[in-house]
Amino acid sequence: MSIPAGLLRNRVVAITGASQGIGRGIALGCAQAGARVVVHHLGTEGATQDAETLLSEIGEIRGKMAAQGNSLADRSTAAAIEVGGDISDPATADKIVRAAVSEYGRIDGLVSNAGICPFYSFLDIPHDAWQKTRSVNLDGAFYVVQAVARQMSQQEPKGGSIVAVSSISALVGGGQQAHYTPTKAGVKSLMESCAISLSQYGIRCNSVLPGTIETPINEEDLANVEKRIYMEKRIPLGRLGRPEDLAGPTVFLLSDMAQYVTGASLLVDGGAFVNLQ
């Protein structure tokens, strides 16, 4: 996907869970749009390696922009920085803000994306799986949104744009996702309430609701050929989603093109929701 280079010109965008999957796709899209990116990841060895690879790719994007004489490629600061830590720990949210402000002086956008989705039938959901899924998906979103919004409300000029990655699962049930769907409904609701609460600071809050996107989270589940074919047939556009499919909608919501959009929920599902049968 080609993202217009000027949409996020030199803006600072923090993205949680950015080392792989949807977060990675969004991070690359933000870089193509001219943003300076704060790449958050879990902090494990594998996630750190993935984040370093992503930083290198973002640097290459800026290098190509500069080689083409694109003035949007501000080379006075790093194209991207990385921050490791468990998003379910409130200290990680503060760490993200400190790193962004230290390197860039402000935060203009946040994409709250970090999440997990283990699969269990309802009667088999371990209580620790319920607690872990909630703490990462919902508590983590609350912590980082609050920390970043505080910074946005204090910086000059004030304001910014926050986009949370919810899910089509916020609108429909899932037989093996009874611990997951409530967290995504909660993320959507969080953005709707924050849109009201934070408007006085010039902060817009929206959510994107992906359908079935091929990522490491669902790789094992989609390895079932029959299930994959069934899922593809339910989608009017005829294919499963890719991480980069979320980049354009998210960049749009972060940009001034969406300056009158707040409290909205944007389905990015290939038409799956309207074709539920």
Explain the overall architecture.
The protein has 277 residues and is α/β, with parallel strands linked by helices. The chain has a single domain, classed as Rossmann fold, CATH 3.40.50. It is built from 8 helices and 7 strands; from the N terminus they run E-H-E-H-E-H-E-H-E-H-E-H-H-H-E. Strands 3-2-1-4-5-6-7 form a 7-stranded parallel sheet, with helices on both faces. Strand 1, helix 1 and strand 2 form a beta-alpha-beta unit. Helix 1 runs parallel beside helix 2 and helix 1 crosses helix 8. The chain is globular, with a radius of gyration of 18 Å. The protein starts with 11 loop residues before the first strand and ends in a 9-residue tail after the last strand.
Topology, pairings included?
Elements: E1 12-15, H1 21-32, E2 36-41, H2 45-67, E3 80-84, H3 90-104, E4 109-112, H4 127-154, E5 160-165, H5 181-197, E6 203-210, H6 219-222, H7 225-234, H8 247-254, E7 265-268
Parallel strand pairs: 1-2, 1-4, 2-3, 4-5, 5-6, 6-7
Helix pairs in contact: 1-2, 1-8, 3-4, 4-5
Pfam family, one: adh_short_C2
GO biological process, one term: rhamnose catabolic process
Family: Belongs to the short-chain dehydrogenases/reductases (SDR) family.
Which key features would you list for this structure?
277 residues, alpha/beta, Rossmann fold, 8 helices, SDR_fam, NADP, oxidoreductase
